[in-house]
């Protein structure tokens, strides 16, 4: 739209008893702040959820609600601290109904331009994960915001493990423009595994053939955290705050997330989004599942037991890479590296390289795997959509070094990367073969995977996720008391 055609609205309204001068120009709303400091408030139209007439008060509930022609409300979101977004409103009153109508019409017309905002959302709720309160999370944080924003939500509560995945593979979901879930990483994993396999079924693609290009699901995904760790939600949004996750869905902006497909000799085992871990974390996942009644504390209990036992696993790792060194660049919202990855991945000249050893843990991280318990994650410089995994190899050493590793993982400031017994490599594909009979399990997005010898391949930006990304920086690399 040329500048001449850009509408300019300028009016003075009443907000409660206070006069508010508000202007809308070039897609930006500006008004005076209600209370000191008397700064101006600026809200770009892309942060506005909806603009609606208010209803007249004092009418008996049996009488149909009547619109108040003199009042309207702007529902909007504001970025708060630490990547969190907050929901806010501004109610405005004017004696002239034409003023009110003109503002509502202009703002609503602008909002119609955001065609990627979801309108008909299929939302899965896992009542089993985390604190078993996913339904309450939906009712408390999501339901009202979706109503306000005009998103028609169909809720599907899962009754058993893998039901979400099976539903998506076999049911017609053409009536929805987007899909979301309330749950932890296991729930998100069911969601995207179902969507990709569904697409393979429709397009008659053999998902078990590693050489096939997997099809991109046509519907974007929303992720509302409701699990124990919620690593995927944290890495995408920079927080596990449910309101923020809901607002990211309503905004309708998407970012591309890589998925990794994991195979044994014969078939596709599953796709993962966060991490595939062998050794320590595989053992913890296998062991902790028996203690689910403990809630999130089961990870502390199993983690401690497995740490003390300090098992090492002999194996061979082969990586397929064009550049194995990891660049120390953060993946933040509007990341250039992820933007370029899609264009350049075909051009990458890769070769296989092999490593052998005895490992405490081997992890193929697809994202940094940061979460509230591990603010930097196991792979702080791993990107969401660069078509690569960071392979973190932790050698089998002493118990004291295992403790150093765990301290680094839970540290705000230091990361595992510069520990002398940790090596991080960048790869587009990797293989693992266990050397002898003593083998561990794989932990795949928090779920136990029993096959030991696997091959994994990154699928660049296979998913579109509703998120504006995180602004967090991995920051300074101070060592945790030199430990
Ligand atoms: N109705 C259900 N009954 C039992 N299990 C279910 C049901 N619905 C989903 N599941 C399974 O519950 C498991 C745990 O769910 P989820 O991963 O969301 O929670 P979590 O493990 O507490 O969180 P996180 O993975 O973030 O630590 C997953 O394996 C999922 O497939």
UniProtKB/TrEMBL annotation:
Instruction: Give the PROSITE patterns listed for this entry.
Output: DAGK
What are the transmembrane regions?
none
Q: Which residues form the DAGKc domain?
A: 116-266
Gene3D superfamilies noted in UniProt: 2.60.200.40, Probable inorganic polyphosphate/atp-NAD kinase, domain 1
Name the domain of life this protein comes from: Eukaryota
| Stored PANTHER family | CERAMIDE KINASE, ISOFORM A (PTHR12358:SF111), SPHINGOSINE KINASE (PTHR12358)
Q: What is this protein called?
A: DAGKc domain-containing protein
Q: Which organism is it from?
A: Hypothenemus hampei (Coffee berry borer)
For this protein's source organism, the top of the classification is: Eukaryota, Metazoa, Ecdysozoa, Arthropoda, Hexapoda
